[in-house]
Write a structure and sequence with these properties.
Elements: H1 3-22, H2 33-37, H3 46-50, E1 56-58, E2 64-66, H4 78-82, E3 98-102, E4 127-130, E5 133-137, E6 156-160
Antiparallel strand pairs: 1-2, 3-6, 4-5
Length: 161
């Protein structure tokens, strides 16, 4: 084994962990490790089929992730109710572990064009404007992602924590 291969093999577990943490999961889990043990055993993937917003996508490894490209999470509990493998549970309901940010260089409002596309669908009024321009996301944001799709310039970015 060459030195380069040795270091690559040693770093591999850390790369997998980083990838796992960057995936945005449904907001009803207690132990993230259950996705890799229990979800992969699930054959029906009911969490994805019952999602009314169609934002739960199944990855190649058989685990669910949230995809805000079509809509956002309404915290309806259906995915948790449908989970038979005890990964998602209503008792574990929490805020989605993601960070929502506005790219000020892409945002129309930050470029002095009136646009309230992101503010309108926000259920918790987490998007605040200074005057008619300069929207910011406050700390009451639930990371539901409802603002992502409606942005005409894709200025709203989502990243896993």
């Amino acid at each position: 084994m060459q030195r380069r291969e040795l270091f690559s093999s040693l770093a591999k577990p850390f790369k997998q962990k980083d990838l796992q943490e960057s995936i945005i999961r449904p907001p009803y889990y207690d132990d993230i490790n259950l996705f890799l043990t229990n979800c992969v055993k699930c054959e029906t993937k009911d969490c994805a089929t019952v999602c009314e917003e169609n934002i739960i996508k199944i990855l190649d490894d058989g685990t669910p992730k949230l995809d805000f490209s079509n809509s956002g999470c309404t915290y309806c509990n259906l995915c948790a109710i449908s989970c038979k493998n005890e990964v998602l549970n209503i008792e574990n309901k929490k805020q989605i572990e993601a960070k929502i940010e506005i790219d000020v260089l892409s945002c129309l409002s930050w470029q002095n064009t009136m646009c309230f596309s992101c503010k309108d669908p926000c259920i918790v009024n987490a998007i605040e404007f200074v005057g008619l321009f300069r929207p910011t996301i406050s700390n009451v944001c639930t990371s539901c992602g409802l603002c992502v799709k409606v942005c005409p310039t894709n200025a709203i970015k989502v990243s896993g924590l």
